[in-house]
Amino acid sequence: MNTDFLLHYIAFPLIKIAILLAAVFTVVAYIVLVERRLLGFFQSRLGPNRVGPFGLIQPIADGMKLFLKEDVVPLNANPVLFKLAPVFAFFPPFVGFAVLTFALPLIMPSGKMHSFSVADVDLGILLILSISSLGIFGIILAGYSSGSKYPLFGSLRSASQMLAYEVPLTLSVIAVIMMAGSFRLSDIVAAQQTYKLYFVIPGIIAFVVYLISVVAETNRTPFDLPEGESEIIGFHTEYSGMRFAFFFMAEYANVVLICMLTPALFLGGYDIPFVNDLELYKAHPYLVSTLGFISYAAKSTLFAFFYIWIRATFPRYRYDQLLKVGWLVLLPISLFNLFLVAGIKLFLLK
Amino acid sequence: MKNEKPSYLRELVETREFELNMGPQHPATHGVYRAILTLDGERIVGLNSVVGYLHRGIEKWAEYRTWQQATPIFDRLDYLSAVINCHGYVGAVEKLLQVEVPKKAEYIRVICDELQRIASHLIWFGTHALDIGAMSVLFYGVREREAVVDLLEAQFGQRLLYNAYPIGGVRLDFPKGWVEACKKFLKTFNSRIDEYEALLTKNRIWKQRTIGIGVISKEDAIAYGLSGPTLRGSGVFFDVRKSIPYSAYPDFDFEIPLGKNGDVYDRYLCRIREMRQSVRIIEQALDGMPEGELKGKVPKIIRPPVGEVYFSVEGAKGQLGFYIVSDGKDKPYRVHIKSPSFINLQGLDLMSKNQLIADMVALIGSIDIVLGEVDR
Question: Which of A22, A330, B24, B148 is deepest in the core (most CB within 10 A)?
Fold first, then answer.
């Protein structure tokens, strides 16, 4: 075992994981703040602005509060499952970040390439889809083990909700995979760069179906049925303190993940708009990587804003109506779209 | 949704109904109302309403106060429309005493009543939408209510429970600059209602959540004794302001919005349109304000003649009636309140049959109950 191996297969990945986790935790904490400030803006009020300048320390204060709260396990609950459920809900969204690529690779003076991702595996998009579906188990377990009727409703709803959105979501992603010809996320972005065409244009139908389905995926208004705070209070009714915080963070990590996945699939990811990235990259690799990262961040922020906007605007669907929307509207549309995309791929994208 | 399960399912799985306790701490029951739901899955098959958590004995309380002292107690009935409650009681006592209330006082009363109706409907509007998941709407409603409450505060000196009118008239004329401020508010308010409607009325999700939900037919609505927008949503023309005119209402030109199907959506539309009509009434009253006295001739110590009286006003929730018995002493012998929230709540039983839990919150929102009035 030589030092090269240690460096490139152990040390660098670990450093990357540490940086990524730190970044993701920070973003997850601050997207809550951003959402609350933005909701305040939409709702003609201020939002949290007391803790620190512009309320910037609010997430830390919230975290401290939740951390110091009493940890209650109801008498009726199944203690093992009850404690396991938040963990189940917590880890999947964070795993998903591993396969994202954030910029074009960095070329070291030694000639080695360093990709801006932890594990750019060749089935990346499938990994994200399958792992994020695992998050549902956390919700179902939480509702099942709480020993209370309201959480049970929440978990039943989330199970039926998953049936409604998962199929159209996957089908709309398949449209992208067909156009790119690869499951690897960096390949999908590279395909958009070589075609000089973001997939949102040929895949506009897939894009719309995807946008609707991911709102359901992240359990947000108008599809926040498992939570349904004014109807059934939610699957985490019985949770308090840190265990609740796990669900909360998982939910927002999911939102962040989706916001970063969407540009990669449809808006060219770290591609810089109106510029031929690949040409420029040969001349100024560092500049293009940096600008690409900024462009990626900007696109993700756009989607984050979009989802918060949706939350501020719409009423909530009823869960049988969501099933209807999923099976009778989104599914046929996305199936039809597959044929369309196949045609586009055959005749236009060459 | 059909009642029957597919036969194969019945053979495979044994299902049974179960009970779910909704309230009194549920966020969507608008206070301490408790519904014990019998459920088949998420479908409601039975409803058992439990009320009384906010019972304060207001009717009995009134018997231990002199006629004037009893007035502020009734603000605590429907605390979102205290002005109208006060009008109801004061109007009943005036009818008992046969006091002539000056025209100007009646106009001021009408203006304040209608402002209060707008304020009450705005809170209904916000909470109803919040229950169905449209969160921002609550804040828009409260924003406008703030302006109304500011106006009422300038007139009465309070922000929630106003102790608005003395027996026989009103205490004070509008303060300086009030009329202009009110007109300014009314001007912006109509466009604000347009904004609300843009958010909800044509919203597909809103329509899906409300149209055809909680239908109550004309006949049932009358049989259950419903009143207010809950009744008018079913298309029954009954509004105390038109049907049993009181105060200065016959002087004004306004319409009573009626629904057609009696579902949640129609009740929603009724209330939204009612706010527009209230604006019309206030505008007319402000323009046609007569000169004159503020208070009729009422003795310092009131001892009404022996007898009984029934007087009702159109509250924000429906017909608010006061039945008062006097034994000629300085205190009421008996005050009975016909409270619209309590009677409208009975309709919930019929409306919630075969609906889903998610509809339950829409239904409670659509009959607009205030528990202070249900329990008294």
Answer: A330
